[in-house]
Structures are given as structure tokens and as C-alpha cells.
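We were asked to recover a plausible sequence for a given structure. The inputs and outputs are reproduced exactly as logged, with field labels preserved.

PROBLEM: sequence recovery
POSITIONS: 113
GIVEN STRUCTURE:
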């Protein structure tokens, strides 16, 4: 029997390539309510969690914004984990094991639009 859970939220990534994450110097997470990317302090009522990347200075000027959403995840735990992976990625070299692991993990995920 197939059942569906209407509370399930899809994970969305807002980048095409893991190397694009290197444009950011840090990452934070924010709760999101009612489908809007507006940070809210009521974390216990969040519909999902957004990982926000804070651009490096040169990228912020080029994009005319200090930050940009990187991913939407269904829980705070997943968002924190992904933000930690992103932090590790930007502090490592492109050929490091953590970069290769994150790239492989993201490529294994089914993409839906």
C-alpha cells in the first residue's frame, strides 16, 4: 500500500554545481513560514528551513546582495547538517575528500521541479 504524507517537504537546492558554493564565506539557517523566505523567530512553527549563504565581498558586489538562499530542507536538523557541510566545503580545497563526498551525495539525489 502506498501512503502519502502531506507534511513532507521536498528538499530544494538553489545551485547547479557544488563549486558554486565557494562563492560564499559563511552559511546560516532560518525558519521559513507559509512558503516565504522571510526569517522568523518562531522556529517551532517553521514549515521548512532555509540555508542562507553569505557571499564573499567580491561576490556580494557582483550579485548586488550580501546573501542568497542555498537550499530548503524539511527540518532544522537537516538544515544544520547541510550548513555544516557547506562550511566545511568552503574551507577545504576543491580536491579534498569532503568536497568529493558532498558532490557525490548531491549527484545521487533525484531532482524534481
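RECOVERED SEQUENCE:
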Amino acid at each position: 500500500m502506498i501512503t502519502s504524507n502531506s507534511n513532507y517537504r521536498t528538499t530544494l537546492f538553489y545551485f547547479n554545481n557544488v563549486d558554486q558554493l565557494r562563492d560564499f564565506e559563511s552559511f546560516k539557517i532560518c525558519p521559513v513560514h507559509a512558503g516565504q523566505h522571510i526569517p522568523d523567530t518562531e522556529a517551532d512553527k517553521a514549515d521548512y528551513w532555509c540555508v542562507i549563504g553569505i557571499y564573499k565581498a567580491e561576490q556580494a558586489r557582483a550579485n548586488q546582495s550580501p546573501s542568497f538562499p542555498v537550499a530548503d530542507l524539511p527540518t532544522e536538523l537537516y538544515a544544520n547538517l547541510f550548513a555544516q557541510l557547506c562550511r566545511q566545503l568552503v574551507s577545504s580545497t576543491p580536491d579534498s575528500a569532503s568536497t568529493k563526498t558532498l558532490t557525490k551525495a548531491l549527484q545521487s539525489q533525484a531532482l524534481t521541479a
